[in-house]
Amino acid sequence: QVQLVESGGGLVQAGGSLRLSCAASTSIASINFMHWYRQAPGKQRELVAEITIGGVTNYAGSVKGRFTISRANAKNTVDLQMNSLKPEDTAVYYCKAQQYRLRWHEYWGQGTQVTVSS
Question: Cβ distance 19 to 81 under 8 Å?
Answer without folding.
Answer: yes
